[in-house]
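By convention, the token line describes the chain's fold. To illustrate:
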Amino acid sequence: MTDLTRRTILGSGLLAGVGVLSACGGSPTSECLQGEHQLDGGPAFTFPFIAGERPRWERQVSLRGLAVSPDGRRIAAQEPWDRKSLGESETAGTTVWDTATCEILARFNDGMTNGVAWHPHDELLAAATYAGLHISRLDGKVLWTLRGHRAPTRWRSFDIKDLAFHPDGHQLTSLSTDGTVRLWSLGGDACTPSPVLRVRSGRPSSLAYTEDGSQIAVAVDGAGAQLWDPSSGERAETFDDCGREAVGIALDGQGRFVLGIGEEGRLQVVGQDGTCSAGTSTRITVPEFIATAPDGRIAVSGGRTEGLELWDADLTESSFIDLPEFIPEIGAPGELGRTAWGPDGTLYAVARWWGVIAWDGSEWRPFELP
């Protein structure tokens, strides 16, 4: 057991903190609760007289959650509620696979289906549902429950769209469409809420730490991209020259950011001086998922596209990779969601009906389905 895991288990109970700004001018409260506590497990968002989407029998995974362990030996993704609600599965939530054998190692019935992040140094997973998060060990033991994001209501939809650990592992960041990016400090014998970054306009959609962890870049659909100080919670810079419909963001391996511009299907590179490139067109209709390989290659996916675009490090040449052939009993491959690179350069992805798949450079390799 690592030091952080051991200290966390011995940690104190409830620690609450206040953020920077709230929608009404006050201070929204974030909470770190030791152990497992109740969270909103599913969307309550419905319009009157309009029926919600019907559950699906077919096996599937969430398009938003995917994370590779630092050593590349395991991968985590999430199983939605559909099949459990229909009695076809005993679990809904986080699933962990062995990347060598493609076999399932563990299934957690944690209800976490909105994103997952692997701790960079400890055997811990952060996983999100619509309004809260768990930090868990790989045996499913919940160490901390994090609350504070707004839950969906009958009239408005909110959900956590992205998670990221600080490079040193002592901070976790969660981004929600409620307009906040919440920071959580991990270390010593406690989990402590940190500043709340309040995005005043647009919908935050994606985030990424700089390599040294000194800043957080946030893509805000409707307001462009912004840099924030994760220590003070203050906004450091706004990339005014970039497209306002920023839906995806990632570091490119050269200290720059790659932005996915949704309305125009375009990629833009933001230099260290804050200047934006003219942009490069992409075949991905809504480039919300951007992942950078150890050698600088960039994978782009999203927008219900049935495949991904793979770019070289300079965004000068690309190739489009289709999903595997149609699944006979379903009739279509379904869209492809988030991608993630292993340390050896293997590209992993989640696809609606295929589940977790890996690209070896010539063909897709499917993983065992939950």
About this structure: The first strand starts at residue 15 and ends at 18. The chain is about 5% helix and 40% strand.
